[in-house]
Amino acid sequence: MKLYDTKAISRVLNLSERRVRQLKDKGIISEYKAGTGLYDLIQTNHRYIDYLRNRNPDSEQAADYLTERALLVRAKRRDAEYDLAVKERELHAASDVMAVMSGMLTTFKARILAIPAKLSPILSKKTGKREIFRILKDSMEEALAELSDYGQAFGGEREDESYESGNA
């Protein structure tokens, strides 16, 4: 086994001779035999690398390549699944859902608020409770049916056709 002096170790580790001595004094690296000033290159190199890893555990060198690669592949897969769900219309952007729901609820509110104005002239001429009830119920069910048709609110088939023609 070949042993190296402080000057050679400092060149290999790209450190000053003084820094090599400081590392020896701290016990990070050690001489082959105490007091000789000679070092085993491989052992010294490994101990210095371990010191650097332990000093900064969040550094790029300390990260396990396979773990990082797995995280990257998982993120790419999730992104691809998201894009596919959007294209297959299984998933919608939150802003689209908010716009559609806002429009639907505004329309529903307007229809409900219009019922008294629309039906009051008709109901003023009616005297039978059952007939008044039926007219009111039909008008409310019509408004609720429009609210329940969320497929129409998201554009229905017309939007699918424009999407396919845009990407063909």
Q: Would you write up a description of this structure?
A:
With 168 residues, the chain is mostly helical. It has two domains: 3-61; 93-167, no CATH class. The chain is 72% helix and 4% strand. The protein contains eight helices and two strands; from the N terminus they run βααβαααααα. It has helices at residues 6-13, 17-25, 41-55, 65-87, 94-123, 129-148, 150-153, 156-167, and strands spanning 3-5, 38-40. A two-stranded antiparallel ribbon has the order 1-2. Helix 1 (6-13) packs across helix 2 (17-25) and helix 5 (94-123) packs antiparallel against helix 6. The chain is rod-shaped, with a radius of gyration of 38 Å. Mean pLDDT is 81; it is low at 157-168.
Strand content: under 5%
Whole-number count of domains: 2
Task: Enumerate the strands of the largest sheet in spatial order, edge to edge or round the barrel.
Answer: 1-2
**Stretches with pLDDT under 50, minimum 5 residues:** 157-168
Describe the largest sheet.
2 strands, antiparallel
Counting DSSP E segments of at least 2 residues, the number of strands comes to: 2
Structural class: mainly alpha
- Helicity level, as a percent range? over 70%
Distance from first to last alpha carbon: 70 Å
Question: Can you tell me the overall shape?
Answer: rod-shaped
Give the ordered list of helices and strands.
EHHEHHHHHH
Q: What Rg do the Cα atoms give?
A: 38 Å
Overall pLDDT score? 81
**What is the overall number of helices?**
8
